[in-house]
Design a protein that fits this description.
Rossmann fold, 42% helix, 2 domains, 385 residues, alpha/beta, five-stranded parallel sheet, globular, 15 helices, six-stranded parallel sheet
């Protein structure tokens, strides 16, 4: 495994990692090679580009340290990491799997981070080059798969593997009340919560607006847990409007996160208007495994909204439509039978995304192109590793 030093979602490295260029460790029998990369204190488009370029440079150096492998798996974004994969595919004479979590150029356009022009044309050519020289291109939703077909990726080269989850572990029974007892300000309330990165594309500001719109309903409380580039701005807005029905919490450990899911009524997920089909939040599967209904704020035809409607595991509203979202919350608050039904549907639907089901298909596809079943493999990714 080639990766960087932990920094996400707070965009801060751990104190012990400051100044380190390389680090080697063994995790569950897997060699992990970490490399330096620039982490800006305040995220902007130019700084994000520098962040990704520095990661790709040190990832390439760590590929040299890893030595020849039979198969290379690149997790994108960052898109430019695919160039590293192609270079070492040729050097190692390996197979290359390019696994896409976000369509980065499309995402940058939809969020207004870049405009149509030279930059997008440049990134599109890089995309085409990487897809052409990959042995297998994989992605995580039907909508992204369709978009890749539109970009010219041959169907026989393209695979669809939804993000997986260990359903048994995620849905393990936990005693109720643990999270509430640690946060007395929410004791006794009916809770709508968002947990995760608080950045531009996540749209957590919608929950702040919802808290303001529903402040007269004393029994309903909102929680935003996590860190990210947009958190301080949202806290400032909440303080200015004196929102006593909204609580901000720091980034949660996995155990605390599962305790939160156990104790809340509804989990909230939002996407910015116009984000389209280039994002799909992997956290959704963990929420479903805990039998919790979701409230979605996203474009009606987005993959996220379509998925929730298809599995009848929550309620959806148009992106940033506060009155519609408030009405959805009120309907769930007033109808515990509906609330429980949506949660039960979520738990039933998540079985098809179990770790063993998804990874068995993925491994079969990878092994089908290698000379032997015990082929060696190196995977490269950035993110919260």
């Amino acid at each position: 495994m080639v990766t960087g030093f932990s920094y996400y979602p707070s965009w801060r490295k751990l104190p012990q990692d400051h100044g380190k260029l390389f680090h080697r460790e063994i995790y569950k029998g897997v060699q992990v090679l970490r490399g330096y990369f620039y982490v800006p204190k305040k995220v902007s488009t130019p700084k994000r580009i520098l962040h990704e370029l520095s990661f790709c440079l040190f990832a390439a150096l760590n590929f040299v340290r890893a030595g020849r492998q039979d198969c290379i798996i690149i997790i994108s974004p960052p898109l430019l990491l695919g160039l590293v994969g192609v270079a070492f595919k040729w050097l190692f004479r390996s197979r290359l799997v390019f696994h896409i979590q976000d369509l980065q150029p499309d995402a940058a356009l939809s969020l207004g981070m870049v405009k149509h022009g030279l930059m997008i044309r440049f990134l599109s050519r890089i995309e085409k080059f990487i897809y052409t020289h990959s042995d297998h291109v994989a992605t995580i939703t039907e909508a992204m798969r369709s978009r890749l077909l539109d970009k010219g990726v041959p169907s026989e080269k393209l695979g669809l593997y939804y993000n997986w989850i260990d359903v048994a572990r995620a849905s393990k029974s936990r005693p109720a009340g643990g999270f509430r007892s640690r946060h007395p300000e929410i004791m006794g309330n009916w809770i709508v919560a968002y947990a995760g990165n608080i950045g531009v594309k996540q749209g957590a500001d919608v929950l702040v607006k919802l808290a303001e719109a529903m402040r007269t309903i004393d029994a309903i409380h909102f929680v935003i847990a996590g860190d990210g580039a947009d958190k301080e701005r949202l806290k400032t807005i909440a303080a200015r409007h004196k929102l006593s029905n909204l609580t901000f919490l720091p980034f949660l450990s996995q155990a605390d996160y599962f305790d939160l899911l156990r104790d809340i009524q509804v989990s909230f997920i939002a996407q910015r208007r116009g984000a389209g089909n280039v994002f799909f939040p992997s956290k959704l599967l963990g929420i479903m495994a805990m039998s919790k209904p979701v409230l979605i704020s996203a474009d009606r035809e987005s993959e996220l909204s379509s998925f929730v409607r298809r599995h009848n595991c929550g309620l959806t509203a148009d992106a940033e439509d506060i009155p519609q979202l408030a009405a959805s919350i009120e309907s769930l608050y007033a109808d515990p039978v509906l609330l429980n039904k949506l949660g039960a549907n979520a738990r039933h639907a998540v079985e098809q995304f179990d770790r063993d089901v998804i990874l068995e298909r993925f491994f079969q596809r990878i092994q089908s192109g290698t000379e032997h079943e015990d082929a060696s493999c190196v995977s490269a990714l950035t993110g919260p590793q």
